[in-house]
Amino acid sequence: MKVSYNKLWKLLIDKQMKKKDLGDAAKVSANTLAKMGRNELVSLDILVRICRALHCDIGEVMEVLPERKG
Question: Which of 22, 26, 42, 63 is the S-S candidate for 49 at Cβ 3.0 to 4.6 Å?
Answer without folding.
Answer: 26
